[in-house]
Amino acid sequence: MCGVLLAAPERRKRFEVRRSGASRVDRPIQPVGAIGMPGLYRDQGVVLRTVKLGEADRILTILTQNHGKIRAVAKGVRKTHSKFGARLEPTSNVALQLYLGRDLDVLTQCETIESNRALREGYGLLTHAIPMLEAVDHLTQDREPVPAIYRMLTGALRTLANRRSALVTPAFFWKLLALEGYEPRINACARCETPAAELPLFSFDLQEGGGLCRGCAMGGGRQLSVEAFDLLSRILSGGLNDALDEAPSPASHDVEKLALAAMEHHLERRLKSASLI
Amino acid sequence: MASYEGSVQRLIDEFGRLPGIGPKSAQRIAFHLLKLPKEDAHRLADVIVEVKAKVVWCKRCFNIAESDLCSYCADERREAHLVCVVEEPKDIVAIERTAEYRGKYHVLQGAISPIEGIGPEQLRVRELITRISGEGITEVIIATNPNIEGEATAMYLANLLKPAGLVVSRIASGLPVGGDLEYADEVTLGRAMSGRREL
Lengths: 277, 199
Description:
The complex is a heterodimer of chains A (277) and B (199). By secondary structure, chain A is α+β, with helices and mostly antiparallel strands. Helix content of chain A is 37%, strand content 20%. Chain A contains nine helices and eight strands. In chain A, the strands form two sheets. Chain A has a five-stranded mixed beta barrel. In chain A, strand 2 and strand 3 form a beta hairpin. In chain A, helix 4 packs antiparallel against helix 5 and helix 5 crosses helix 9. The longest helix of chain A has 18 residues. Chain A is elongated. By secondary structure, chain B is α/β, with parallel strands linked by helices. Chain B has two domains: 49 residues, Helicase, Ruva Protein, domain 3; 117 residues, Dna Topoisomerase Vi A Subunit, Chain: A, domain 2, CATH 3.40.1360.10. In chain B, the strands form two sheets. In chain B, strands 4-3-5-6 form a four-stranded parallel β-sheet. The radius of gyration of chain B is 22 Å and the shape is globular. The chains are: A alpha+beta (277), B alpha/beta (199).
């Protein structure tokens, strides 16, 4: 329409729209954290995974605090003189400035908030950290803000780096499932609803979503010890801090295996990285 | 969708299978080839056939080779007690350009990638262990990439090899020569500080 002469009523209508400010509705909505220039925004997030792109670039999958899971291109990141340096490796929590794209955003600047360096420098810690990232990657949707999961993930990575407990990853899985609405029922039999205080739970059934008493189990589910049920109960009811101090035991091993099975059951896919735990 | 005559379309399809080449690029390369003199096109075809017929993995280090052993493994003047572990054959070329290393190599053909589910059993780790016991190797330099996969591989190999009494070292990480300190990221600068050396 540019350069075309408009009829007087049409010109008047456009002028009135401009004066009233109504034309702002047509402008693209600025995302949360938008800064000055259109399309640019800031946020902070944890790098979940990286994929090589072309000669020297990478596509990053990042769980951000305010914009949910995003995928962004970091140009030239694989070059030794890249301005991004080692900031954009999985497990890093970084402050970001990005340019909004149609499918992939473009990373323009980043600064480290927490590098979680200890996780990258211990093979055992890394193999426990990556399954958390993979689970979050599969569980979250693109551009759907999930600040609770972001906070939980940063907390879990920090705890794993500081406390170095093998229980961090299973505890994260259980809490993540609980946050998504899959909290297991362990205070009563998931089938007959007899309270666990009256009739102790005997096994855990993923289909039923909780523990079963001996009568309801009938050989089904995974048999769990009383100690394992107790540990699971403490993880889900605010007793994780004390549980992390305990030495590895058969109960913690059972809870770890069950957490992975529960996560894979609800994701309906295997976690590739769990094979290296 | 309209397509080209038989062999031209087949050529475009084959180029389109190469990494990083989309349909438009494939078409452009195919038409470039059509314009080339016959002998140039034959030279390209011959070298592709030759490389597929001749090039194999070195039986000792898994570098690319044109006989049982690659040129580095066959070179008697190289220090046989020293082995540098790299991810890919192209890393050997990068190290050789420095002219600082005169030992042997071992190519893992990848790196441990927890997120892709690639474990040590999918790499040439078992072959490295066999070499160490059979060739009198006393020192292993781990020169995997300084990213999360390379670090995981280095840590795994160090845990595996150190109990055997070998000297296991990792290539240094730090600031690139010619760069400014203020632009260095915290991880790199932190490593440069912890790996500092006396002057």
